[in-house]
Amino acid sequence: MIKVYLVDDQNLVRQGVRALLELAEGIEVIGEANGGKAAIEQIPKIKPDVVLLDMRMPEMSGLDVLHELKQKDQLPPTIILTTFDDDELVLAGVKSGAMGYLLKDVPLEDLVEGIKKVANGETLVRPQITKKILEGVEGLKNDFMSFERPEPLTSRETEILRLMAGGHSNKEIANSLFVAEGTVKNHVSNILSKIGVRDRTRAVLKALELGLI
């Protein structure tokens, strides 16, 4: 059972998302907050598997929540929820530790798929936002290690990195390449090590910056 925590200042939105997720198997909403302050207090205590976080809230924004929890090393896998297809918010959220974003009007199946992917350690860097990420890489350079070029990737690692940039999960990549999922996980681990980053999202950003994909 994937434990989900909702953060949104609009009661109707929270109630609507909760009602939708109650229809999905394998997902349980274990808590919710109507603002950033309550979220920061409750999330470390109840330790959800995935947080669905609104970005535009009064007093304390979603970005503030990401910054605060990340600084304390208490940030669970988090999906940004927004009503706006906002380039700057997406980039700032990813930079601050979010594992992807979804618009609030996504179909239930897409929301459930996104939650399951993030709970499984995947990211939601989908093809439609890869261009935005590429355009925003300049502002993220200082977050990466100082070396100019990473250890060379193999052709298979480059192929997998391209699929990662398309938002594909390990299982989807394995099916596409006709290999075992464990083999893909090993390749992903090698890619992160060679590029010198700690997660898939930053691996894609760094690869885009260096022109590896």
How are the SSEs ordered, and which strands pair?
Elements: E1 2-7, H1 11-21, E2 27-33, H2 36-46, E3 50-54, H3 62-71, E4 78-82, H4 87-95, E5 101-103, H5 108-119, H6 127-136, H7 155-165, H8 170-177, H9 181-195, H10 200-210
Parallel strand pairs: 1-2, 1-3, 3-4, 4-5
Distance between the termini: 36 Å
Classified in CATH, the superfamily of the largest domain is Response regulator
**Strand order, sheet with most strands:** 2-1-3-4-5
Q: Into how many domains do the coordinates divide?
A: 2
General form: globular
Descriptive account of the structure:
- This protein is of the alpha/beta class.
- It folds into 2 domains: 2-123, Response regulator (Rossmann fold, 3-Layer(aba) Sandwich), CATH 3.40.50; 135-210, Orthogonal Bundle (Arc Repressor Mutant, subunit A).
- Helices cover 51% and strands 12% of the residues.
- It is built from 10 helices and 5 strands; from the N terminus they run E-H-E-H-E-H-E-H-E-H-H-H-H-H-H.
- It has helices at 11-21, 36-46, 62-71, 87-95, 108-119, 127-136, 155-165, 170-177, 181-195, 200-210, and strands at 2-7, 27-33, 50-54, 78-82, 101-103.
- It has a 5-stranded parallel sheet with strand order 2-1-3-4-5, with helices on both faces.
- Helix 4 packs across helix 6 and helix 9 crosses helix 10 (200-210).
- The radius of gyration is 17 Å and the shape is globular.
- The termini are far apart.
